[in-house]
Amino acid sequence: MLQLRQNQSLQQRLTPQQVQYLKLLQLPILALEQRIKSEIEENPMLEETADEEEREEQAAGESVTEAVDAEEPAMELATVEANGEPATLEQNQAELQRSREERAEREERTESSNEYSFEDYMNDDTEGFKSPTSHSVDDDRDETPHAAAESFLESLYNQIALLNLPDRYRALAEEIVGSIDEDGYLRVPLEQIAHDAGVFYGDEYTVQEAEAVLRKVQKLDPPGVAARDLRECLSVQLEVMPNHNPSREIAKRILRDRFDDFVNKRFTALSRHLGMDVQGLKPAIELIQHLNPKPGASSGDLSESTKYITADFYIEKTADGKDFIITLNERGVPPLRVNAAYKDLIRKQTPEHGKTLTPEAKDFIKKKFEAAKFFIMAIYQRRETMMRVMQSIVNHQRLFFENGEKFLKPLIYKTIAEDIGMDISTICRVVNGKYCQTDFGVFELKYFFSEAIPTHAGSGGENSEGEAVANKVVKSRIKDIIDAESGSEPLSDEKIVQLLNAEGFDVARRTVAKYREQMNIPVARLRKKLV
Length: 531
Fold this sequence. Notes:
The protein is mostly helical. It has 23 helices and 8 strands. Among the domains are: 152-299, no CATH class; 313-448, no CATH class; 452-527, Homeodomain-like (Arc Repressor Mutant, subunit A). Helix 6 (152-162) packs antiparallel against helix 7 (167-178) and helix 22 crosses helix 23 (509-518). The longest helix is centred in the C-terminal third of the chain and has 38 residues, at 359-396. The chain is extended and about 105 Å long.
């Protein structure tokens, strides 16, 4: 039997205005600029204050110019009459014509001073030609577009067209290139490629034909492309290398006969098999190490490989060096306000003026006005929140901003949230994807948050007081130790632990291994070098 009941409960829900504020809070500066431009296009009630003021000044300047132009003929005629007797009509016209010609000559001289000669364009200055009205480095300007570049696959297809191949083999070569992965390797079996090419082009290919075409494709630029494994990739690069290098044949033997010994840095076994001393192998080993293991990875598009970082904050020391100035980067964020024209429209739509708005128009204006008002409030609230979070980070990491990376302290989101009285999720939104520029470089705000590593009184090290340090400090120290190790006898993780413990860092071997892997540093056996 169905029954109707009423229940009271407390629920926490976000209003649309709060959702909008949170979305703006997590946007970095460049994304915020685009979001503001989009909002201005969608909401006619919003406008940029700076643009409106410029339009008013421009209109005022044009009106003044028109007034001056209208007064000039009268002034010219008055000048003629002031010289003596009242001028005749012919004299007035002649004097007026002469004045106009003089004004035209002045304008031509002014314009000619702003023109550029042929020598200006042929200037060999490394900084390039600059017009008198060119922008300085600090001026706003449109981003310079990148030139269209040929992609990796397009380059290979164009090279195939230049090969002296029959049409049926050219089709097979294009099928091979189309099966290459992003690193430039061929992961699809040749049997499958020959079958797919036969079905698509209506022909039959044998595996031997596919193998012969593959050999030609592998010698395209970059050499080694379409290789099926690392050994084949490196071998092809050695094959196309000029013969004047004496270590080339030794390197080919290493890859052909003792590739596993080379990969695992077993140099003693390698020298014993080749009948050479370890020092004699060094030129061949270095030659192989300078080859390209990923032919396709270095040929990516410019738009994909080039990434730019724009700082959201600028941290600078004061003149006396005792405090810091935090500046929020809002260079591309225009001041916003409600459109004054719509205010006048609403003010005039009254019965006294004989005009009234329709209900649809009133509802439209009301919604857009509320949206504009809350959007402007969200921008100001975002600015205040970000400044409070950044100020708290600077207060907790003061030693870092004064002395550098080695003085980074442990810090978690909860500490900042309690300091400024906000939720942890708000801190996460502010920190995510934001960067600050300091005297020591540009850092993501996430960099200032790290786990604590306990320390004890080391043997004369920096941690003699036994205070906890950030795990990034330990990572940096591990990297310094590895960089300073001997190439012939790299340090094991256990030895690194002993060195860190001697300096006062309480870390375990598995912690060192984890940090080493996070920094993409191989194990000791693979770091061995011939010296």
